[in-house]
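User: Can you predict the 3D structure for this chain?
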Amino acid sequence: MSDFGIDLATLGGWLPLVFAMVMALSMLAYVILDGYDLGVGSLLESADSVEQKDMMIASIGPFWDANETWLVLGVGVLLVAFPMAHGVILGALYLPVAFMLVALSLRGVAFDFRVKAKAHHRPLWDKVFYIGSSLASLSQGFMLGQLIIGFKQDIAGLFFSALIGFCLLFAYRLLGAGWLIMKSEGALQLKAVRWAQNSLWLTGAGVLAISIATPWVSQRIFDKWFSFPNLLMLLPIPAVTVVLFFVIHRSLMRLPSRFAQGNQYGAAVPFSSTVGIFLLSFYGLAYSLFPWLVIDRINIWQAASAPEALLVIFYGVVVVFPVIIGYTVFAYRVFWGKSTLLNY
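Assistant: Here is the predicted structure, written as C-alpha coordinates:
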Protein backbone atom coordinates (compact mmCIF):
# COMPACT_ATOMS: atom_id res chain seq x y z
CA MET A 1 0.00 0.00 0.00
CA SER A 2 1.19 3.54 -0.77
CA ASP A 3 0.90 6.55 1.54
CA PHE A 4 -2.38 7.39 -0.24
CA GLY A 5 -3.97 4.02 0.49
CA ILE A 6 -3.49 2.76 -3.09
CA ASP A 7 -2.65 -0.88 -3.61
CA LEU A 8 0.64 -0.80 -5.54
CA ALA A 9 0.39 -4.45 -6.50
CA THR A 10 -2.92 -3.76 -8.22
CA LEU A 11 -1.47 -0.70 -9.94
CA GLY A 12 1.45 -2.77 -11.16
CA GLY A 13 -1.03 -5.13 -12.77
CA TRP A 14 -3.37 -2.80 -14.67
CA LEU A 15 -1.36 0.39 -15.31
CA PRO A 16 1.06 -1.35 -17.74
CA LEU A 17 -2.02 -2.53 -19.66
CA VAL A 18 -3.36 1.04 -19.82
CA PHE A 19 -0.07 2.43 -21.08
CA ALA A 20 0.33 -0.40 -23.59
CA MET A 21 -3.12 0.50 -24.95
CA VAL A 22 -2.30 4.23 -25.08
CA MET A 23 0.96 3.50 -26.87
CA ALA A 24 -0.73 1.15 -29.32
CA LEU A 25 -3.52 3.62 -30.11
CA SER A 26 -0.98 6.42 -30.55
CA MET A 27 1.06 4.40 -33.01
CA LEU A 28 -2.07 3.32 -34.88
CA ALA A 29 -3.22 6.93 -35.16
CA TYR A 30 0.23 7.94 -36.36
CA VAL A 31 0.45 5.22 -39.01
CA ILE A 32 -2.92 6.16 -40.49
CA LEU A 33 -2.79 9.95 -40.15
CA ASP A 34 0.87 10.58 -40.93
CA GLY A 35 0.80 7.60 -43.28
CA TYR A 36 -1.42 9.33 -45.81
CA ASP A 37 0.63 12.54 -45.82
CA LEU A 38 3.87 10.55 -46.12
CA GLY A 39 2.16 8.82 -49.04
CA VAL A 40 1.26 12.12 -50.65
CA GLY A 41 4.85 13.28 -50.22
CA SER A 42 6.22 10.10 -51.80
CA LEU A 43 3.92 10.68 -54.80
CA LEU A 44 4.95 14.30 -55.27
CA GLU A 45 7.57 13.67 -57.96
CA SER A 46 5.00 11.76 -60.04
CA ALA A 47 2.80 14.85 -60.51
CA ASP A 48 2.57 16.35 -63.99
CA SER A 49 2.81 20.04 -63.14
CA VAL A 50 3.68 22.60 -60.49
CA GLU A 51 -0.03 23.25 -60.02
CA GLN A 52 -0.67 19.58 -59.20
CA LYS A 53 2.22 19.58 -56.72
CA ASP A 54 0.85 22.73 -55.07
CA MET A 55 -2.57 21.10 -54.74
CA MET A 56 -1.04 17.94 -53.26
CA ILE A 57 0.82 19.99 -50.66
CA ALA A 58 -2.32 22.01 -49.96
CA SER A 59 -4.28 18.81 -49.26
CA ILE A 60 -2.00 17.92 -46.35
CA GLY A 61 -0.97 21.45 -45.31
CA PRO A 62 -3.32 21.89 -42.34
CA PHE A 63 -2.65 18.41 -40.95
CA TRP A 64 0.83 17.01 -41.57
CA ASP A 65 2.72 18.49 -38.61
CA ALA A 66 -0.09 17.77 -36.12
CA ASN A 67 -0.21 14.15 -37.34
CA GLU A 68 3.35 13.65 -36.09
CA THR A 69 2.19 14.45 -32.54
CA TRP A 70 0.99 10.85 -32.29
CA LEU A 71 4.51 9.55 -32.94
CA VAL A 72 5.89 11.75 -30.19
CA LEU A 73 3.21 10.52 -27.78
CA GLY A 74 3.74 6.85 -28.64
CA VAL A 75 7.54 6.97 -28.30
CA GLY A 76 7.20 9.12 -25.18
CA VAL A 77 4.98 6.52 -23.52
CA LEU A 78 7.47 3.80 -24.49
CA LEU A 79 10.27 5.81 -22.85
CA VAL A 80 8.61 6.74 -19.58
CA ALA A 81 6.33 3.74 -19.03
CA PHE A 82 8.49 0.93 -20.45
CA PRO A 83 12.12 2.12 -20.12
CA MET A 84 13.63 -1.36 -20.30
CA ALA A 85 11.94 -2.10 -23.62
CA HIS A 86 12.72 1.42 -24.86
CA GLY A 87 16.44 0.76 -24.41
CA VAL A 88 16.32 -2.60 -26.19
CA ILE A 89 14.08 -1.46 -29.07
CA LEU A 90 15.77 1.86 -29.77
CA GLY A 91 19.18 0.26 -29.37
CA ALA A 92 18.37 -2.39 -31.97
CA LEU A 93 16.79 0.19 -34.30
CA TYR A 94 19.33 2.96 -33.87
CA LEU A 95 20.14 3.42 -37.57
CA PRO A 96 16.60 3.25 -39.02
CA VAL A 97 15.38 5.60 -36.26
CA ALA A 98 18.17 8.03 -37.13
CA PHE A 99 17.25 7.85 -40.82
CA MET A 100 13.59 8.43 -39.98
CA LEU A 101 14.34 11.50 -37.86
CA VAL A 102 16.56 12.98 -40.57
CA ALA A 103 13.83 12.28 -43.13
CA LEU A 104 11.11 13.90 -41.03
CA SER A 105 13.36 16.94 -40.51
CA LEU A 106 13.90 17.20 -44.27
CA ARG A 107 10.14 17.12 -44.78
CA GLY A 108 9.56 19.92 -42.31
CA VAL A 109 12.25 22.15 -43.81
CA ALA A 110 11.15 21.46 -47.39
CA PHE A 111 7.48 22.11 -46.64
CA ASP A 112 8.17 25.62 -45.33
CA PHE A 113 10.88 26.52 -47.84
CA ARG A 114 9.08 25.41 -51.01
CA VAL A 115 6.23 27.90 -50.58
CA LYS A 116 8.60 30.85 -50.04
CA ALA A 117 11.43 29.94 -52.43
CA LYS A 118 11.83 31.52 -55.84
CA ALA A 119 10.37 29.58 -58.74
CA HIS A 120 13.70 28.13 -59.91
CA HIS A 121 14.43 26.79 -56.39
CA ARG A 122 11.04 25.16 -55.84
CA PRO A 123 11.84 21.90 -57.70
CA LEU A 124 14.74 21.35 -55.30
CA TRP A 125 12.48 21.59 -52.25
CA ASP A 126 9.86 19.41 -53.92
CA LYS A 127 12.53 16.74 -54.39
CA VAL A 128 13.68 17.12 -50.78
CA PHE A 129 10.08 16.69 -49.58
CA TYR A 130 9.74 13.60 -51.78
CA ILE A 131 13.02 12.12 -50.51
CA GLY A 132 12.13 12.84 -46.88
CA SER A 133 8.68 11.27 -47.24
CA SER A 134 10.01 8.16 -48.99
CA LEU A 135 12.95 7.66 -46.61
CA ALA A 136 10.70 8.02 -43.56
CA SER A 137 8.28 5.45 -44.99
CA LEU A 138 11.05 2.96 -45.78
CA SER A 139 12.59 3.42 -42.33
CA GLN A 140 9.30 2.81 -40.55
CA GLY A 141 8.65 -0.31 -42.59
CA PHE A 142 12.14 -1.62 -41.83
CA MET A 143 11.51 -1.05 -38.13
CA LEU A 144 8.18 -2.87 -38.35
CA GLY A 145 9.89 -5.83 -39.99
CA GLN A 146 12.53 -5.92 -37.28
CA LEU A 147 9.87 -5.77 -34.55
CA ILE A 148 8.02 -8.73 -36.06
CA ILE A 149 11.10 -10.98 -36.24
CA GLY A 150 12.44 -10.02 -32.81
CA PHE A 151 15.23 -7.71 -34.07
CA LYS A 152 17.23 -10.45 -35.79
CA GLN A 153 20.17 -8.95 -37.68
CA ASP A 154 21.02 -11.89 -39.96
CA ILE A 155 20.74 -11.77 -43.76
CA ALA A 156 17.24 -13.24 -43.81
CA GLY A 157 16.05 -10.83 -41.12
CA LEU A 158 17.49 -7.79 -42.89
CA PHE A 159 16.00 -8.90 -46.22
CA PHE A 160 12.56 -9.40 -44.66
CA SER A 161 12.72 -5.99 -42.94
CA ALA A 162 13.76 -4.31 -46.19
CA LEU A 163 10.86 -6.02 -47.98
CA ILE A 164 8.40 -4.75 -45.38
CA GLY A 165 9.92 -1.28 -45.72
CA PHE A 166 9.35 -1.35 -49.47
CA CYS A 167 5.77 -2.61 -49.08
CA LEU A 168 4.94 -0.06 -46.36
CA LEU A 169 6.08 2.70 -48.71
CA PHE A 170 3.45 1.54 -51.21
CA ALA A 171 0.86 1.11 -48.46
CA TYR A 172 1.42 4.75 -47.53
CA ARG A 173 1.21 5.66 -51.22
CA LEU A 174 -2.14 3.86 -51.38
CA LEU A 175 -3.34 5.85 -48.38
CA GLY A 176 -2.01 9.08 -49.89
CA ALA A 177 -3.62 8.40 -53.25
CA GLY A 178 -6.92 7.64 -51.52
CA TRP A 179 -6.63 10.93 -49.65
CA LEU A 180 -6.02 12.82 -52.90
CA ILE A 181 -9.01 11.12 -54.53
CA MET A 182 -11.18 12.60 -51.77
CA LYS A 183 -9.51 16.01 -51.61
CA SER A 184 -8.91 16.88 -55.27
CA GLU A 185 -10.74 17.15 -58.57
CA GLY A 186 -9.97 16.99 -62.27
CA ALA A 187 -6.68 15.69 -63.68
CA LEU A 188 -5.03 15.26 -60.27
CA GLN A 189 -7.95 13.18 -59.00
CA LEU A 190 -7.75 10.86 -62.02
CA LYS A 191 -3.99 10.57 -61.61
CA ALA A 192 -4.49 9.68 -57.94
CA VAL A 193 -6.72 6.80 -59.05
CA ARG A 194 -3.86 5.44 -61.19
CA TRP A 195 -1.41 5.85 -58.31
CA ALA A 196 -3.74 3.88 -56.07
CA GLN A 197 -4.08 1.12 -58.68
CA ASN A 198 -0.29 0.84 -58.93
CA SER A 199 0.11 0.65 -55.13
CA LEU A 200 -2.72 -1.72 -54.25
CA TRP A 201 -1.18 -5.12 -54.82
CA LEU A 202 2.24 -4.27 -53.38
CA THR A 203 0.36 -3.24 -50.25
CA GLY A 204 -1.32 -6.65 -50.34
CA ALA A 205 2.10 -8.30 -50.69
CA GLY A 206 3.26 -6.58 -47.51
CA VAL A 207 0.18 -7.65 -45.56
CA LEU A 208 0.64 -11.22 -46.79
CA ALA A 209 4.34 -11.26 -45.89
CA ILE A 210 3.63 -10.08 -42.35
CA SER A 211 0.77 -12.56 -41.99
CA ILE A 212 3.04 -15.44 -42.99
CA ALA A 213 6.12 -14.38 -41.02
CA THR A 214 4.52 -13.47 -37.70
CA PRO A 215 3.33 -16.99 -36.72
CA TRP A 216 6.65 -18.47 -37.87
CA VAL A 217 8.86 -16.42 -35.55
CA SER A 218 7.28 -17.84 -32.39
CA GLN A 219 5.56 -21.11 -31.58
CA ARG A 220 3.44 -19.22 -29.07
CA ILE A 221 2.12 -16.89 -31.79
CA PHE A 222 1.51 -19.85 -34.11
CA ASP A 223 -0.57 -21.56 -31.43
CA LYS A 224 -2.59 -18.39 -30.79
CA TRP A 225 -3.67 -18.27 -34.44
CA PHE A 226 -3.96 -21.89 -35.50
CA SER A 227 -5.27 -23.74 -32.46
CA PHE A 228 -8.99 -24.45 -32.15
CA PRO A 229 -11.30 -22.65 -31.54
CA ASN A 230 -9.05 -19.59 -32.07
CA LEU A 231 -8.68 -20.32 -35.77
CA LEU A 232 -12.42 -20.12 -36.38
CA MET A 233 -12.89 -17.00 -34.26
CA LEU A 234 -9.99 -15.17 -35.95
CA LEU A 235 -10.86 -16.19 -39.51
CA PRO A 236 -12.96 -13.03 -40.12
CA ILE A 237 -9.81 -10.86 -39.82
CA PRO A 238 -8.02 -12.18 -42.95
CA ALA A 239 -11.34 -12.77 -44.71
CA VAL A 240 -12.53 -9.17 -44.30
CA THR A 241 -9.05 -7.91 -45.23
CA VAL A 242 -9.21 -9.77 -48.55
CA VAL A 243 -12.72 -8.42 -49.17
CA LEU A 244 -11.50 -4.86 -48.57
CA PHE A 245 -8.71 -5.28 -51.13
CA PHE A 246 -11.27 -6.32 -53.74
CA VAL A 247 -13.58 -3.46 -52.74
CA ILE A 248 -10.73 -1.01 -53.36
CA HIS A 249 -9.88 -2.67 -56.67
CA ARG A 250 -13.49 -2.56 -57.85
CA SER A 251 -13.89 1.05 -56.75
CA LEU A 252 -10.72 2.17 -58.54
CA MET A 253 -11.99 0.58 -61.75
CA ARG A 254 -15.29 2.46 -61.58
CA LEU A 255 -14.25 5.88 -60.32
CA PRO A 256 -12.67 7.33 -63.51
CA SER A 257 -15.91 7.08 -65.47
CA ARG A 258 -17.86 8.65 -62.61
CA PHE A 259 -15.39 11.51 -62.25
CA ALA A 260 -15.55 12.15 -66.01
CA GLN A 261 -19.30 12.76 -65.55
CA GLY A 262 -18.75 15.06 -62.57
CA ASN A 263 -20.05 12.43 -60.15
CA GLN A 264 -18.06 12.24 -56.88
CA TYR A 265 -20.05 9.33 -55.47
CA GLY A 266 -17.71 6.74 -53.94
CA ALA A 267 -14.65 9.01 -53.83
CA ALA A 268 -14.07 8.12 -50.18
CA VAL A 269 -14.22 4.34 -50.70
CA PRO A 270 -10.52 3.71 -51.50
CA PHE A 271 -9.27 5.74 -48.54
CA SER A 272 -11.78 4.39 -46.01
CA SER A 273 -11.25 0.80 -47.16
CA THR A 274 -7.47 1.23 -46.90
CA VAL A 275 -7.91 2.54 -43.36
CA GLY A 276 -9.97 -0.59 -42.67
CA ILE A 277 -7.10 -2.77 -43.91
CA PHE A 278 -4.68 -0.91 -41.65
CA LEU A 279 -7.01 -1.34 -38.67
CA LEU A 280 -7.44 -5.08 -39.23
CA SER A 281 -3.72 -5.59 -39.83
CA PHE A 282 -2.89 -3.65 -36.69
CA TYR A 283 -5.40 -5.66 -34.66
CA GLY A 284 -3.95 -8.93 -35.94
CA LEU A 285 -0.40 -7.80 -35.16
CA ALA A 286 -1.35 -6.59 -31.68
CA TYR A 287 -3.10 -9.88 -30.97
CA SER A 288 0.00 -11.77 -32.09
CA LEU A 289 2.49 -9.74 -30.05
CA PHE A 290 0.56 -9.19 -26.82
CA PRO A 291 1.81 -9.11 -24.10
CA TRP A 292 5.37 -8.92 -25.51
CA LEU A 293 7.14 -5.69 -26.38
CA VAL A 294 10.12 -7.73 -27.56
CA ILE A 295 8.88 -11.13 -28.76
CA ASP A 296 9.46 -13.85 -26.17
CA ARG A 297 11.96 -11.66 -24.29
CA ILE A 298 10.33 -8.67 -22.58
CA ASN A 299 6.63 -8.32 -21.79
CA ILE A 300 4.80 -5.19 -20.69
CA TRP A 301 4.98 -6.02 -16.97
CA GLN A 302 8.70 -6.79 -17.03
CA ALA A 303 9.44 -3.56 -18.90
CA ALA A 304 7.14 -1.29 -16.87
CA SER A 305 8.32 1.51 -14.60
CA ALA A 306 7.59 1.40 -10.88
CA PRO A 307 3.85 1.60 -10.05
CA GLU A 308 4.35 4.95 -8.28
CA ALA A 309 5.93 6.45 -11.39
CA LEU A 310 3.25 4.99 -13.65
CA LEU A 311 0.54 6.54 -11.49
CA VAL A 312 2.06 10.02 -11.83
CA ILE A 313 2.43 9.58 -15.60
CA PHE A 314 -1.14 8.28 -15.78
CA TYR A 315 -2.50 11.57 -14.42
CA GLY A 316 -0.63 13.43 -17.16
CA VAL A 317 -1.93 11.11 -19.88
CA VAL A 318 -5.51 11.59 -18.64
CA VAL A 319 -5.10 15.30 -19.38
CA VAL A 320 -2.97 15.21 -22.54
CA PHE A 321 -4.59 12.34 -24.46
CA PRO A 322 -8.10 13.89 -24.73
CA VAL A 323 -6.57 17.25 -25.70
CA ILE A 324 -4.65 15.68 -28.60
CA ILE A 325 -7.77 13.83 -29.73
CA GLY A 326 -9.83 17.02 -29.42
CA TYR A 327 -7.62 19.29 -31.50
CA THR A 328 -7.10 16.54 -34.10
CA VAL A 329 -10.85 16.15 -34.55
CA PHE A 330 -11.29 19.93 -34.61
CA ALA A 331 -8.60 20.42 -37.28
CA TYR A 332 -10.11 17.79 -39.57
CA ARG A 333 -13.59 19.21 -39.00
CA VAL A 334 -12.47 22.74 -39.95
CA PHE A 335 -10.50 21.75 -43.06
CA TRP A 336 -12.79 18.99 -44.35
CA GLY A 337 -13.88 19.03 -47.98
CA LYS A 338 -12.03 19.61 -51.24
CA SER A 339 -8.66 21.34 -50.98
CA THR A 340 -7.90 24.76 -52.36
CA LEU A 341 -4.47 26.19 -53.04
CA LEU A 342 -2.65 27.55 -50.03
CA ASN A 343 -1.47 31.15 -50.43
CA TYR A 344 1.33 32.74 -48.42
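Strands lie at 292-294, 298-299. The radius of gyration is 21 Å.
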